[in-house]
Amino acid sequence: MGTKCGGRSRPECRKSAMDIEQLARDVCDGNRRALARAITLVESSRDDHRRDAIALMDALSHTGKQALRLGLSGTPGVGKSTLIESFGMMLIREGLRVAVLAVDPSSARTGGSILGDKTRMELLSREANAFIRPSPSRTELGGVARRTREAVALCEAAGYDIILIETVGVGQSETVVAQMSDIFLLLLAPAGGDELQGVKRGIMEMADLIVVNKADGDLEPAAKRTCADYSGALRLLRKRPQDPDGFPKAMTCSALQESGITQIWEDIKFLTAWRREQGHFDARRAEQAEYWFGQEIRQGLLAQLDREPLRSHVLSLTKQVATGTLTPSGAAEQVLAALRHDTP
Amino acid sequence: MGTKCGGRSRPECRKSAMDIEQLARDVCDGNRRALARAITLVESSRDDHRRDAIALMDALSHTGKQALRLGLSGTPGVGKSTLIESFGMMLIREGLRVAVLAVDPSSARTGGSILGDKTRMELLSREANAFIRPSPSRTELGGVARRTREAVALCEAAGYDIILIETVGVGQSETVVAQMSDIFLLLLAPAGGDELQGVKRGIMEMADLIVVNKADGDLEPAAKRTCADYSGALRLLRKRPQDPDGFPKAMTCSALQESGITQIWEDIKFLTAWRREQGHFDARRAEQAEYWFGQEIRQGLLAQLDREPLRSHVLSLTKQVATGTLTPSGAAEQVLAALRHDTP
């Protein structure tokens, strides 16, 4: 067995120096440092780290522990962190262990990260039974997806009961989060009636609960109206087999005044229990695993093109294709042949 | 040299029995039977035919001939065939040679084909200088795209001056056609003002000309109103560098009464001349070639998964992933390793 890594969260150990079995045991024991180190390992794109990460995930895939995975999407300013703080603290008070992860589509471009500033969830971040992890930055959404998905599995193995996966509602990150969540919440702000069109139909179809936040003070009537609008819109959607009567549903809350938070939790528990009973819970997890398997293969195949010497070969062929010296099909055949090792 | 294939349009010759150089010469000489046979060859997915097709495309990629490629999209009933008939006959009268091809997204599912019934273009189909080819059926859109793209290049090598590429305006087929056209026309029917939302913004952004058909009889006022609506909508789009002032533009026509057809042609000629002068014409072709190169690589990579024994391997892994026996990443790694021949 290799020597254990230090407590630093960067996996700077020499190749194969990491004791994956020990790390798996520590994560399983609920050791927060080990969990943080494990997440850092799955976030690394170094080849040897990747191998270790796959071994770690494999070692932890049979713990039998299962958390409830809650996806949460909403545009900036809608009150996601305030809701996570209120909702998370309520869960902690119920004796549950809560992990908060994030998929940040913007970090790929800007290098910034949501959840980076833990003071956004001041109370929750101080709780021993809460684990908050910012989104990894500087990676493309595909990479973020894999890492978050593996971080979810790590938190699950570490014994967290509820895993909240937050994302900013832009681009394709909702799909990413929905595909790794058991229940998907869409958080909205009160708005005028014509705002309804702002939420894409595809996003609405993914939501299990639509929660209109800021139902307090002056905004309460607008929040109720927005909620009614979405209730109406949800009724127009095709009934999904995984929903009991009344779901997906729209509701209001005030994360700031902590009103409506308990109702959200009651609805989540009801929906989860129903889906478990009907077999939809496990079926959805199985579908999601298949989806990610397909995504991993696709990404792995395309990643081959980014590796030298193929990368330079593709670039040189691209120039010849652009000038018409080679046809697109002929050039592609050369690339595929190189991948098959048909060429010297 | 091998023996020449017979005149049958199915490539039923034995492997390597086809004389590709001779076929290339015949296509280049404008032999219609050879052209039809060549298109049938590029439509085949048999491995040996595919190799022959790549050799043929390569042999014909340096003829220096260049047709004007016109993409045409519109929903069913909008009058595409009537327009192609009127527009095509006008071009024939100008002494031009016209080829008509189709990308039919529905054929992948239904096995049906548009343009299958040549009587839809009764006059044009009887012209010696017109070549009409129905969409290949029973293939996925990716396959249809490659085949149509190669058919376009074959028609070009055969000396056609104008190649019309028709598609039904549903799904992603517009993008496919726009990516193989020099000029992209969107054909619309007169409609109420709120119909504007029926055309997706992305489709509108691809269009160089929006043509509102059926500007005749009772429908003329509605056609003019629809045209004005789209003119307004086009002005709101960001100015593209490849457009002179006034483009993209909306206009009306009546394919039935053959009014407005000449104006469409004048606008196409003006736009083409301007783009050629400014270098945008060649730049767009180069970009399109690069795009198709990327698509061909992607499709080729994914096609590996459909071949045995990998296909069965993937299916068996999928089951293990669904039941949780394997993680998605671990299973994907096995597939990628098998592709790298790392496994026995």
UniProtKB/TrEMBL annotation, chains A, B:
SUPFAM superfamilies: P-loop containing nucleoside triphosphate hydrolases (SSF52540). InterPro entries: AAA+_ATPase, GTPase_ArgK, P-loop_NTPase. It comes from the Bacteria. Pfam families: MeaB. Residues 66-202 form the AAA+ ATPase domain. Belongs to the SIMIBI class G3E GTPase family. ArgK/MeaB subfamily. This is Methylmalonyl Co-A mutase-associated GTPase MeaB. It comes from Celeribacter arenosi.
